[in-house]
Each structure stands twice: as C-alpha cells, then as structure tokens.
Amino acid sequence: MQGLLKFARLFLLLNLNLFFLLCGSMIKSGFFLSPEKKMGLRACGMRWWSRSNCFILGIHITPTGAYSKNDVFFIVSNHCSYLDILVIGTIMPSVFVSKSEVASWPFLGRLVKLAGTVFVNRESKIASVKALESIKERLSSGISVVVFPEGTTSNGLTIRDFKSTLFKAPIDSSVPVLPLSIAYSHIERRPVTAGTIDTVAWHSDMDFLPHFWNLLGLRRIDVCLHFNAPLYHFTNDRKTLSSSVFDRVREGHKRLIADTELGITL
After folding, report:
1. Contact 214, 208 (CB under 8 A)
2. How many domains does the chain have?
3. Is the pLDDT of residue 266 over 70?
4. How many CA atoms, within 13 angstroms, populate the side-chain half-sphere of residue 185?
5. Which residues have CB under 8 Å from 5's CB, separation 6+?
6. Is residue 266 part of a domain?
7. pLDDT tens digits for 79-90?
8. What does the pLDDT look like over 13-68, one tens digit per residue?
9. Is 83 within the bounds of a domain?
10. DSSP-derived pairing of the beta strands 144-147 and 74-77
11. Exposed (0-12), middle (13-18) or buried (19+): which is 184, by Cβ within 10 Å?
12. Is 58 left (phi over 0), alpha (psi -120 to 50) or beta?
C-alpha cells in the first residue's frame, strides 16, 4: 500500500506542478500586466502552490502567535527541510530567497523562477548586492520576502548562526521584520524524536531523491509554525539586527519543542 501511495502522490505532484508552471508562464508573458501586478500574482500563486502541495503530502500546519496580515514583512525563519518553503508559503503571499544552485535544477528551477524567487550566491559580493536590490524591489512592490539566514538547512534540533548580509534590506526599505520558528512535531501521529527527525529534515550530505521518495510514503506530517513578535523599530546596524532576530527565532523554536510532545531534549 505504501508503494501505491508513493506513486499516486508522485503522479499528483507532477501534474499539479505542471499546471502551476503553465500558470506562471502565462503571468510572465502577460504584457498587459504591470510589474507590480505580476509580482502580486506570483506571490498569490506561490501560496496556492504551497497549499496544494501540502495537501497532497499530508502536511498539517499548526500556527501560533500573531502578526498583522496587512503589513509587508521581511520574514526570517530557521531552516531544516525543503518542506519549510511549502509550510511557510501556505500562510501569506510571499516570495523566497534561495541559493543560486536551485535556479539550475531541472523543472523545479524553472518553477521557482516563475514564482519570483530571488537567487543569491553568498560567495560573491556582487551577486549579494544584486540580490539585495531584488529583495528591496519586491518589498517596495508590497510583497513579503522570506529568507533563511542560516544559509543552509540544519538538523532541526539546533539553529545555525545567522548570516547578516541580507538584513540590510529591511533597514533600507523601512520594512518590519517578522521572525518565524518552525518545528516538525509528529510523523504518522507519533512525536518526532532525535532518531526520527531526519525523516523530514534534509541536511548535510543527504541525497535528495531517496529522502523525498521515502517522504512520499508518509501519510501525515505535523509541523508547528510560531510567529514571534515582529520588529517594527530596530537598529540600522545589520549585524545587531541579525543577532536580535536570531534570539527571537531560537527562543520560539525552543518554545515549540517544549510546548509539544516532541521526544527531543535541547
């Protein structure tokens, strides 16, 4: 039965993503749409794409905390899995910042480009400057931007130090920062433990295809997403801002683990 579930989900995901690929191409080629309108449609499309994928994959999200849905945010989150994008993407229209390698991935690279994703090569100062300008452009268009300042995924148990470069964007744009904390709480209705977290966490030198194929066989994944208090007034120093946001994300992550039935001790 698990093999049948995997193939059924794979079929649904391929067709769903082909549909959104077509929609994205139509939006991009819409010469009668302003750049701001296109970006807004891309962000809304990203939200529905995320919700549809979460439904197919059996991902159930429990949000806690609060934020103003009318505000545009520079959203900062910890990062432990490719599923984080789907989870966060369900909540509000937004675009993501991703490492430059993703742009060259077959099929998926094209899809995330059409979604308005900002690609950044953290090894190049020139590329980082271009990414900053792209982020500010999206924020000025009224679209929230999601970043994972750890620079890579972690094991879901700890949070890596934040890289501060991209924190210049909310400072220059005078946009509030919304710190998010994400934790996967249950797999197949059983509490996640240090021994089972890698079923959903994708990090280090894990191969993507075997990990994703195994994930397709899971009937249910529960994830908690906590909205920490937004920062509306903050320093003009990006490193100080980065440190402050890191503290909020880390405390939120600890609270999620403490408030759920996770069999994890930090």
Report:
1. no
2. 1
3. no
4. 22
5. 216, 217, 219
6. no
7. 999 999 999 999
8. 999 999 999 998 888 888 778 888 888 888 889 999 999 999 999 999 999 998 88
9. yes
10. parallel
11. buried
12. left
